[in-house]
């Protein structure tokens, strides 16, 4: 049932609460003239925000009044509305609601103060007849309940004729001035509440008035002081506005649980020192995607009974279903089966650009196992590592999860023979915004395809190209389907290079608008070239102005609107045939950016790779911080320089508690964690029968722009790092989203791979990998491994991963096996020993269906990376 439709029953039941119910009452004496105003921007001097509407045309401010159009014949008053959320009401207090209203040609309206979600209980209401001449309406009522976030709705949908409705001077006076909000920030000593890696950086921040160094003490769970030292005064931190000092206890390396740090009479939350800290975070952050799946029943046996639910949007009433979705009126004349995929965030929309970058990050976390020493072999991301239905199918589970979205992305492509064939529809979502909470299978809204866009098309091309190379060893048919879709999409985008998603198309779902697709063109060309090796894509990527530009932004390395860095990072890491000087330049651009993020991190007293200004704290900003850490991590993978690893590791401290609010933004990870994220599915805060978001769900994080009414009302004037509230009403600071959890999953996987974060040894082997001959469906490769260390090896195992579908057919002078793309060559008994300075050689014949066959960027000897020439 529509959440708005339910109001009728609630309204009828609550008529007794109406004190005047008249079209125009007089102010009740109980509301004093100086009673506080509870409506924000009731005179519309600040534009339309935070007002919203449903079932109407766009909201516009005209001569100081908020106006919109309403179609005729909707049938019910509540079929269209204009309102504001997060209006605080106090039980027993008197309120005076007043406003001016006009309607042309004229209609009855109702103003309702109500619970903002199911069952939409009415607290007070007034009916009025609106005509072309504005009239003043005024009524008083006593609030029957406490509600810190009630909803004021003008129901305007009842007229047989279309109307133009305008509201002016909307006011609700009464109750109390909301006391200034004081978040509970716990102890003033701020640590990573999960812990620290034994060999990694260990930093904390202390909020204190003291300006001289203080003594710190690290205490074990047994109560013994195990280390102590002096703090470093840091002055006033711009991001938090706090006077702070920092603690560096990196030199303490003893693993253990339940450590605490005491400074200035305050004791931190407890934490561990361990090399296995992040193993489960890698799994939890990936498991989030299964919980967000659309079009499949969620199995409680896999992730807990409280998360079990029927399949969403398969067309079972009350769902309209994603199995045959028409376009918005006038956009196309066909319907598509766009079932599956992941729900984007707290809403039930599915958006190609955001789905694409999230999928890319999962695929990249997997691809990293082919190119990064600490991930090599990929056992931790293999089959049966996640609790997904595809577990045990001999395909790495992270690829199975990515495929759930890939299949959806492919369905969003315009079919051959239709206008704009090969392009991708930008998004599919509800016609109108729904209320919270709402299980996917209970969503009654019509679903609509929105117009194709160049951005979505190129995003699909990029991710499908990456799909083609990564799935090649596991499912050749699916890889081929991805490859074809990628090429078709890219060609369609070149034919239609400027079709942009509209910023105004944001009713019922996010707009995800973007009017610069130069970066999408670059990223897609890179992925297509890496996969196919075809010259045309190389020409396009090298001709892009972004190929030589600095693509790493200080505030956030990448997001759905800016994707050039995704191409840059893949060119830097995925094996390819760029000339070596060109490749060196590309890789240097990554380390140069990483150096900048390190400088930023060192300048921040809370130690995060994000500048301290309000403009850096944006919607979903936690993902920007993580994506900057991903650049640091990639710089480490490329260089083995521990300073970059330390930067990436330290970035996690901020997310897990070392921040002004002393909160971990990852549910279930720390002593005090976010758990009331904005999500229609996991709405425990609104309905105790529902679960909180599952462990491993990342909150969007502090957003200084306060773009939702609840945060705007509660946090006005906040210092950037304080602009967050763990409340389900605050979608602009506290939503979950697939593109945020994908960043967390990539970083968590990197962190888990660092184990103890011990010193990085210099390579003790040198490899020459020479492909002597290639023919259309095969090649001949010889590998020579030299022991450049000081001790002899007795037995060896050499490992690398092919870039695509290459398969070993025969081999000599080694035992060679292959799992997926990963090749393992072990010694024969006669060549087991490699003396210092000596070398061994082995060789193989491989098969391939074509495509590039580059020298791997990572070859390990007994798990340690070798220099490659
Ligand atoms: O709930 C929605 C959330 O998921 C989105 O991130 C957000 C911005 O696009 O808008 C939604 O919030 C709506 C809220 O649930 C009800 N009032 C209207 C809001 C949209 O304007
Ligand atoms: O993450 C998106 C953020 O960058 C935008 O500023 C914001 C407003 O357009 O929208 C965010 O994305 C939301 C989307 O519009 C609707 N689904 C929920 C997304 C996360 O809040």
Q: What features would you describe in this structure?
A:
There is one protein chain. By secondary structure, this protein is α+β, with helices and mostly antiparallel strands. The protein folds into three domains: 14-174, Sandwich (Jelly Rolls); 316-344 and 351-753, Glycosyltransferase (Alpha/alpha barrel); 765-868, Immunoglobulin-like. It is 25% helix and 23% strand. Helix 8 runs parallel beside helix 10. The protein starts with 6 loop residues before the first helix and ends with a strand. The relative contact order is 0.10. Residues 52, 85, 345-347, 433, 510, 731, 735 line the site of one ligand 9MR.
Short description:
25% of the residues lie in helices and 23% in strands. With 869 residues, it is α+β, with helices and mostly antiparallel strands.
């Amino acid at each position: 049932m529509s959440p708005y439709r339910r109001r009728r029953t609630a309204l009828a039941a609550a008529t007794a609460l109406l004190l005047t119910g008249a079209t125009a009452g007089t102010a009740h004496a109980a509301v004093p003239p100086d009673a506080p105003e509870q409506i924000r921007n009731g005179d519309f001097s600040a534009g339309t925000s935070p007002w919203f509407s449903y079932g109407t045309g766009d909201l516009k401010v005209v001569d100081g009044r908020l106006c919109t159009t309403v179609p005729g014949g909707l049938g019910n008053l509540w079929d269209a509305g204009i309102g504001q959320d997060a209006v605080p009401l106090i039980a027993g207090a008197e309120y005076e609601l007043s406003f001016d209203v006009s309607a042309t040609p004229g209609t009855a309206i109702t103003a309702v103060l109500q619970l903002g979600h199911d069952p939409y209980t009415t607290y007070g209401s007034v009916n009025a007849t609106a005509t072309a001449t504005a009239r003043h309406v005024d009524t008083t009522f006593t609030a029957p309940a406490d509600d810190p976030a009630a909803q004021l709705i003008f129901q305007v949908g009842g007229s047989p004729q279309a109307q133009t409705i305008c509201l002016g001077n909307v006011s609700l006076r009464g109750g109390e001035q909301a006391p200034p909000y004081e978040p509970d920030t716990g102890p003033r000593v701020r640590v990573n509440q999960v812990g620290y890696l034994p060999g990694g950086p260990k930093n904390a921040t202390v909020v204190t008035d003291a300006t001289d160094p203080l003594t710190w003490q690290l205490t074990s769970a047994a109560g013994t002081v195990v280390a102590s030292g002096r703090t470093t005064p840091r002055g006033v931190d711009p991001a938090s506005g706090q006077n702070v000092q920092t603690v560096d206890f990196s030199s303490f390396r003893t693993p253990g649980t339940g450590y605490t740090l005491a400074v200035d009479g305050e004791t931190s939350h407890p934490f561990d020192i361990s090399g296995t800290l992040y193993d489960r975070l890698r799994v939890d952050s990936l498991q989030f995607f299964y919980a967000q799946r659309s079009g499949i029943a969620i199995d409680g046996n896999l992730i807990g009974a409280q998360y079990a639910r029927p399949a969403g949007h398969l067309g079972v009433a009350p769902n309209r279903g994603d199995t045959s979705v028409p376009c918005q009126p006038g956009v196309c004349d066909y319907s598509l089966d766009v079932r599956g995929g992941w729900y984007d965030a707290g809403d039930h929309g599915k958006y190609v650009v955001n789905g694409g970058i999230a999928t890319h990050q999962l695929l990249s976390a997997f691809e990293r196992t082919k190119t990064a020493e600490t991930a090599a072999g990929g056992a931790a991301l293999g089959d049966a590592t996640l609790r997904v239905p595809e577990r045990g199918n001999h395909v790495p589970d992270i690829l199975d999860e990515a495929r759930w979205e890939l299949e959806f992305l492919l369905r969003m492509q315009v079919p051959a023979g239709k206008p704009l064939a090969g392009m991708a529809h930008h998004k599919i979502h509800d016609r109108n915004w729904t209320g919270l909470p709402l299980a996917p299978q209970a969503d009654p809204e019509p679903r609509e395809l929105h117009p194709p866009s160049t951005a979505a098309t190129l995003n699909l091309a990029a991710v499908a190209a990456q799909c083609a190379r990564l799935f090649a060893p596991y499912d050749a048919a699916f890889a081929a389907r991805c490859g074809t879709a990628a090429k078709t999409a890219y060609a369609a985008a070149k034919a239609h290079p400027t079709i942009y998603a509209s910023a105004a198309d944001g009713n019922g779902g996010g707009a995800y608008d973007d009017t610069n697709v130069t970066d999408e063109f670059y990223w897609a060309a890179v992925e297509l070239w890496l996969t196919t090796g075809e010259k045309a894509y190389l020409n396009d990527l090298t001709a892009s102005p972004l190929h030589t530009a600095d693509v790493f932004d200080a505030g956030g390395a990448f997001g759905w609107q800016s994707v050039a860095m995704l191409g840059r990072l893949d060119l830097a890491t995925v094996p390819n045939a760029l000339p070596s000087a060109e490749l060196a330049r590309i890789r240097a651009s990554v380390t140069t950016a990483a150096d900048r993020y390190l400088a930023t991190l060192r300048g921040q007293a809370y130690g995060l790779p994000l500048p301290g200004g309000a403009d850096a704290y944006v919607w979903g900003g936690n993902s920007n911080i993580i994506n900057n850490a991903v650049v640091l991590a990639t710089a480490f993978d490329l260089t083995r320089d521990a300073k970059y690893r330390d930067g990436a590791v330290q970035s996690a401290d901020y997310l897990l508690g070392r921040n002004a609010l002393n909160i971990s933004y990852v549910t279930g990870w720390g002593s005090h964690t976010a758990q009331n994220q904005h999500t229609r599915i996991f709405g425990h805060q609104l309905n105790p029968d529902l679960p909180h978001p599952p462990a491993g769900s990342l909150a969007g994080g502090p957003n200084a722009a306060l773009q939702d009414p609840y945060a705007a009302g509660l946090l006005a004037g906040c210092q950037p790092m304080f602009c967050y509230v763990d409340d389900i009403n605050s979608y602009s600071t506290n939503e979950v989203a697939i593109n945020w959890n994908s960043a967390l999953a990539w970083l968590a996987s990197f962190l888990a791979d660092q184990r103890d974060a011990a010193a990085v040894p210099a390579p003790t082997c040198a490899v020459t990998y020479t492909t002597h001959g290639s023919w259309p469906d095969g090649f001949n490769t010889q590998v020579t491994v030299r022991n450049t260390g000081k001790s002899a090896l007795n037995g060896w195992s050499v490992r690398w991963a092919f870039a695509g579908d290459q398969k070993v057919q025969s081999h000599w002078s080694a035992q060679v096996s292959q799992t997926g793309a990963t090749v393992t060559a072990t010694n024969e008994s006669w060549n087991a020993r490699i003396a210092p300075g000596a070398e061994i050689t082995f060789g193989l014949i491989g098969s391939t269906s074509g495509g590039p066959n580059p020298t791997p960027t990572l070859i390990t000897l007994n798990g340690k990376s070798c220099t490659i020439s």
